[in-house]
Amino acid sequence: MKVVGKAIPHESAVEHVTGRALYTDDLLTRFPDLLHAWPVLAPHAHAKVLALDPSRALEVPGVVTVLTAEDVPGVGHSSHYHDEPLFPAEVMFHGQPVAWVLGESLEAARLGATRVEVEYEPLPAILSIEEAIAAGSFLAGPLRLSRGDAASALARAPRRLSGEVRIGGQEHFYLETHASIAHLDESGGVMVHASTQHPSETQEVVAMVLGLPRNQVTVQCLRMGGGFGGKETQANPYAAIAALGAWKTRHPVRVRLPRHLDMALSGKRHPFLGRYEAGFDDEGRLLAVRIELYSDGGYSLDLSEPVLWRAMFHSDNAYFVPDLEVTGHVCKTHKTSQTAFRGFGGPQGMVVIEDLLDRVARSLGLPPEAVRERNFYREGQTTHYGQVVKDAGRIQAIWSELKASSELERRRAEVAAFNASSPHTKRGLAITPVKFGISFTATFYNQAGALVLIYRDGSVQVNHGGTEMGQGVHTKVLQVAAQSLGVPLEQIRIMPTRTDKVPNTSATAASTGSDLNGAAVHQACEILKERLAPVAARYLGCAPERVRFEEGRIFPEGQPERFVPFARVVEAAYLERIPLFAQGYYRTPDLHFDKGKGQGKPFHYFAYGAAVSEVEVDGFTGEYRLLRTDILHDVGDSLSPLVDRGQVEGGFVQGLGWLTLEELVWDAQGRLATGGASTYKLPSWSELPEVLNVRFLERAAEPGVIYGSKAVGEPPLMLAISVREALKDAVAAFGQGGIVELDAPSTPERVYWAIEKVRARKEVAVGD
Amino acid sequence: MEFVLNGRRVQVEKLAPQTTLLDYLRASGLTGSKEGCAEGECGACTVVLVREGPAGTEYRGVNSCLLFLPMLAGQEVYTVEGLAQDGKLAEVQAAMVQHGGSQCGYCTPGFVMSLFAEQYRPDRGPEFDLHALSGNLCRCTGYRPIKDAALSLGPAPEDSFKARLREPAPVLGPAVYESEQGRFVRPGSLEECLTFLALHPEAKLVAGGTDAVVESNLQYRRWELLVGLEAIPELKVFEEHEDMLEIGAGLSLGELERRWKGAPQIVREWFPLFASPLIRNSATLGGNLGTASPIGDSPPMLLALDAAVRIAGKEGERVVPLAEFFKGYRQTALGKGEVIVSVLVPKPFPAHSRFFKVAKRRLDDISTVAAGFALELGGAGRVARVRLAYGGVAATPVRLFAVEEALTGQPWSEASLRRAQGMIAEAIKPISDHRGSAEYRLRMAQKLLEKFYYETASAEGVKG
Ligand SMILES: Cc1cc2nc3c(=O)[nH]c(=O)nc-3n(C[C@H](O)[C@H](O)[C@H](O)COP(=O)(O)OP(=O)(O)OC[C@H]3O[C@@H](n4cnc5c(N)ncnc54)[C@H](O)[C@@H]3O)c2cc1C
Ligand code: FES
Ligand code: FES
């Protein structure tokens, strides 16, 4: 019986549905004398802090203290680049906290915060990519990746076009906002409960702020109510403030951001501006492409550089471009520091090349899917950064299979017929591929540790460095452990992630959670089995190599009826003084990348997929509906099909939210105008496609990855590009051929103006 | 103040009257209910109240973040912690587990409660109405597994929850709650209410609370005195008369939706576009008009139907046409100490009436532009009567009388439409904001009329 590959519910599903699953802020009643923190918010996007006087706040009943720069015993930053001051002397974005008030109640802290007197000198602010480019305001870049000589290949190309696309950012809107509770533990250390994807870095930052060695700080993440990259680095300031408050007052301190603060203070997916030039032939085959990417990094570096690298690594998506040059810049603006978000730049890179290909196709009057297909990578080709595209044939295989299963051709004809008879409503159809590289592009992060403990009764505890945010890493690791150790799922307990169990862990990010931690746990289980096998062999009277472990039974190969229970062997091993705990460790082999040369093998492998989407657009208003989506995705041999399907569908819907309706609007003061749940709209039921068919690629085992699986967290998000391209297809149907210009997100308003544009062209054409 | 929580009587004292039910639950250790937004948008805080509905006692899903605690006086509440009994999951919970309906789990308790309310709804049909879940957001799953979980549910099992529905729901009576921070008073009759308001004209009225509590949670408005309108029978009427329909200002939109059989098309289109079912379970027409938002959705619909409001004060009653009710940005014709008692909708309803709402998201979003249109065609396809009402294009909801007048007596034709569109550009000067640009708003005001034209023209067989 295989446990791995079984469709089991999330390991906490019963806790979720009963409300018993605990998240950081659910611990609040466990701490008597808990203090609540509230920030003093700067009312400017850019300003000098001339003076800060907390004295009036202290007069508010219930206010205990005000945290300011003077209270910091260590380094007062929440990033290890020391560029994110907890108590800034220069305000760098609207709403940036300049001090924090601690109160016996949240209301007292909040009232106190209104009484802190701060004097500012407002300074000019840079609020957009265009302004940053004009002012030469950059955090990083130019970064370069290239193959061949794009400039001269462009000059030689028989056809050329250029274009530009603006891609909006995205608020993570994890349902659980940032939360931390810190207290001084029983032995003088600092204990921090935090909703963080990277407990080790949170530990590092807290230790740095308090001026302590890291062994004095323990960080625990029970689980998160969603992360999506938004808690990879950005949980750290709130953990640091909670810890600093606890350090100063000796009381437990809680920091929990209500939604509107979470949205105002935390970083988002990077908005991008993409500019491109393409040279191609009459069939739409790309000959040369030059792409310039500008990301809006906000005020500090955070993860902007690796995000930009990943955008550049994915500027080819699934296409071979003989001469390709990609240049990237991170703009510095007076906004929140933009950060990781599912896909990590990859999606923005792909949107640009897909926009380009659509334009190439429409400029030639060819179906976009034909042009896309013509440009696919073939087996043996390499990317513009010199990595062989392993299994490149899967791109075409997935494409062909999906075209058939979604009946693309028949529906193309139906859509055309519908459009011919419907003046006010048009349908659009598009298919787009995804090729996504798996591994952290910072090579050293590609390592993981685990600690597996067996108790004398045969019950097992598994500790690993991965954090659970809904993506199902605990479920998959549980299945891996049960499979590897040969015990039933119920006998294993996955422990909350803590820095005192597994040290120096990497962020749970880059889709690698299960690959890395699963492999580390697997190794620990293998070590334990190796130790138990000789003990069992003596019981069973067989050679240790022949001992098999399955579902809590240990037996000689081929003779399951001669089993002894796992627990009995464990007890015997204990009595024989054999250690019943083991560490596991894994590092991804063979990764390297030279940033200077822009060459290397940054990825262990690629995950592939494709999606077909059909939309219907109202020509009066620009409103639209998603009628149907078909997805075929490569998850290798799925470790946990229910989890994987959830990741594919959830990622897709999150991606379509980003590309269609989620709109970050900053006003002229640099304040986020769509900074709440009523103004920033996530996909709801109405965005779910009326028909959604999801299938996994079969016979897709990935050798060299845990149980032949593939990472699935991020890649499906980019399947939603099919929706954006389908909208462009529908917009085009209002006119008479030619390109469609549409920035993201394609809100009804943007779709409407795009329709007006193609209609105007039609009228001109008719008028001629 | 007392209420019943998961079958147990609880007492509340000392807490500020503006404490939300959600904060109270979480501080009491019932942390299953989550806060995702504190403004009624996400549904993570959903709980159910036992209430009298059009088909008898029902479990009514509400956003616990949008209830001031004293509004619970005398009520009966169930939270997610109350569902599993003797260690056995409720059917809705088991279905969510089985279908993979939870990933991070943060939205899950709210979905479970919405599923529960719908499964036990006494007048539910054989198929699960998925619309019942549209006030709950999930950032992880993409909804498909939750949909499958919902569709797997049969009728409510014969259990103690079902048995509870055979007993009457608590009747909300007068109540008073007071703490250091303020006072909440819930009068039991209109007379009592008006007398109280005459003495305390500064009191903040709270009907369903879906605006007032948001103001409290997000803008941190604090009031010394709150007057709850939920126990006033005169505000709950729903009466069909020969020449008009009278709708109590305090009737929740959810109740109204289920009671108003044979509502005209404009109203049937309007209901699902107004907020979410969870909000509609609390929100009232009185509150929507009282709050006088320029982007409120009931004004364009009611203006198109030529509705009027009945207003009562200590001095007596008056009826004000809705078109004269809005006086300026968030200002109304209400005097101090006055309340809206009901909304009067004249009959017969117009032959053609449509409601359009343009927003970024199709459901549960605030309007960028909303329009209510009503049309009566006379002989030879000429306009006998037309009403054009908009939200989102001015500081108040508006009716475009001049355009209506110009259209009246004209053929309902493309030429008339173009003329009307031209006049609309003169009549309104919308603003730009994060929901949309001024240009788009104006264009929508014109284009929605065009859409209405083409739809009615084809329905009437008029050739455009
Ligand atoms: C998530 C969410 C979504 C929403 N979506 C929409 C939407 O799509 N369209 C839309 O139009 N609105 C929407 N709203 C706004 C809100 O639901 C409505 O304005 C609602 O109708 C208010 O009714 P209530 O009874 O809850 O008002 P309350 O909050 O109780 O009261 C609102 C105001 O009206 C006054 N008031 C209430 N009743 C009376 C009365 N009888 N006489 C005089 N004054 C009175 C009160 O003084 C109070 O200030 C939404 C709100 C939320 C939270
Ligand atoms: S917390 Fe989001 S609806 Fe109540
Ligand atoms: S499961 Fe995470 S928000 Fe729904």
How many β strands of chain A by DSSP? 29
Query: Tell me about the biggest sheet of chain B?
Result: 5 strands, mixed
**Multimerization status:** heterodimer
Helix content of chain B: 25-40%
Number of domains of chain B: 3
Shape label of chain A: globular
Give a quick summary of the entry.
The complex is a heterodimer of chains A (768) and B (464). Chain A is 30% helix and 24% strand. The model of chain A has no long low-confidence stretch (mean pLDDT 96).
Protein architecture, described:
- The complex is a heterodimer of chains A (768) and B (464).
- Chain A is α+β, with helices and mostly antiparallel strands.
- Chain A has 3 domains: 13-124 and 172-265, Aldehyde Oxidoreductase, domain 4, CATH 3.30.365.10; 272-441 and 595-767, 2-Layer Sandwich (Aldehyde Oxidoreductase, domain 4), CATH 3.30.365.10; 447-587, 2-Layer Sandwich (Aldehyde Oxidoreductase, domain 4).
- Chain A is built from 19 helices and 29 strands.
- In chain A, the strands form 7 sheets. Chain A has an 8-stranded mixed sheet with strand order 3-5-1-12-9-10-11-20.
- In chain A, helix 9 (304-313) runs parallel beside helix 10.
- The longest helix of chain A has 28 residues, at 513-540.
- Chain A is globular and about 85 Å long.
- In chain A, 62% of the residues are buried.
- The model of chain A has no long low-confidence stretch (mean pLDDT 96).
- By secondary structure, chain B is an alpha+beta fold.
- Chain B has 3 domains: 2-164, Beta-grasp domain (Ubiquitin-like (UB roll)), CATH 3.10.20; 234-346, Uridine Diphospho-n-acetylenolpyruvylglucosamine Reductase, domain 3 (2-Layer Sandwich), CATH 3.30.465.10; 353-460, CO dehydrogenase flavoprotein, C-terminal domain (Enolase-like, domain 1, 2-Layer Sandwich), CATH 3.30.390.50.
- Chain B has helices at 21-27, 91-98, 108-119, 144-151, 160-164, 190-199, 212-218, 253-259, 265-273, 277-280, 285-291, 298-304, 401-407, 414-427, 438-460; strands at 2-5, 8-11, 46-53, 56-63, 76-78, 175-179, 182-186, 204-206, 225-228, 238-240, 244-248, 308-313, 316-321, 326-328, 331-332, 339-346, 352-358, 369-377, 383-391, 398-399.
- In chain B, strands 2-1-5-3-4 form a 5-stranded mixed sheet. A 5-stranded antiparallel sheet of chain B has the order 10-11-16-12-13.
- In chain B, a hairpin with a 6-residue loop joins strand 19 (383-391) and strand 20.
- In chain B, helix 14 packs antiparallel against helix 15.
- Chain B is globular and about 70 Å long.
- The relative contact order of chain B is 0.09.
- The mean pLDDT of chain B is 96.
- Classes of the chains: A alpha+beta (768), B alpha+beta (464).
- Chains A and B meet through helix 1, helix 17 and helix 19 of A and helix 2, helix 3, helix 4 and helix 15 of B.
- One FE2/S2 (inorganic) cluster sits between chains B (102-108, 138-141) and A (175, 226, 470).
